[in-house]
């Protein structure tokens, strides 16, 4: 299936030159879920012996601890110039996690004052089922004062399942939480819009607001309502997160084994659309391959590019004249260097031969001199 790249590349007449083949995505999702299910049954039938090397969260196929399905994206050029501390969010049709799950523990990090958001969550208009899942609300000042040490941050990390943060202060959190949170992407805080809608986005005539840097007024926002905040939290918890880094590979959680193949395929389509429109430079042109996989399965291809280059301009029919001349110069220099090395080797060989012949002559002279001495001694003794 992976060998025939053309069968996995779908082009259209209008819009983007490429798109996913829904039937291929569905086939790959079905095969992957079948494999994960088969492995789960095999583990249960294996005399009840658990694999100690596996993550405890991957052992069962219940909705809360189901095996994760990943989308692996390989690009032709780096996705980002530097590591992004703020993860991107892509809303999927079938949420990856429910914010009202009974066992879920959420920590909400807010801009100061934190009391303002505690009151909103405690409001009667805020859904009670969701407020019971938000176990803690932390302002940045309290976070900075209380969690300075590595050990205290580890305890905070282990205490909650998900960390949400006001998108206004999320870029400050790497300094406040350190490598305990940002060493991996497991529990990196998810940005949440915790402000109301802009009040002066347009003037009375309906024109767009002039930016403050261009002499306009400062953007004013209304206070966020309990209903709006609850909606933003639910969207953030169920979204697919994109952690960007200077690399040609990125893995995104798009589903779980408790979903159907159609649901996984729909999420894959939404994530790929979000990636190509917002996160991957040059969109489809920069994508080399798309695969789906589980934690312990092979990667199944759903799309492979026909070309390994991003743009036709990257492919040269002829080398530039300057490059050709440079190659000729280097070749000539190598030949000259080789000739010089050959001459040096010949000289060294000659000198070696000469030194050997000189040594033989010296040995012959020594032997003759020794013989003369012995003859002289014999003559003296006879006299």
From TrEMBL:
Gene Ontology cellular-component terms for this entry are: ribosome
Q: Where is this region: Disordered?
A: 1-24, 334-383
Q: Phosphoprotein as a keyword?
A: no
InterPro entries xrefs? Ribosomal_uL1-like, Ribosomal_uL1/biogenesis, Ribosomal_uL1_3-a/b-sand
Under the heading Pfam families, the entry gives: Ribosomal_L1
Q: Where is the composition biased (Basic and acidic residues)?
A: 348-364
**Name of this chain's protein:** Ribosomal protein L1
Keywords (A to Z) from UniProt: Ribonucleoprotein, Ribosomal protein
| Domain of life, per lineage | Eukaryota
Any transmembrane segments, and where? none
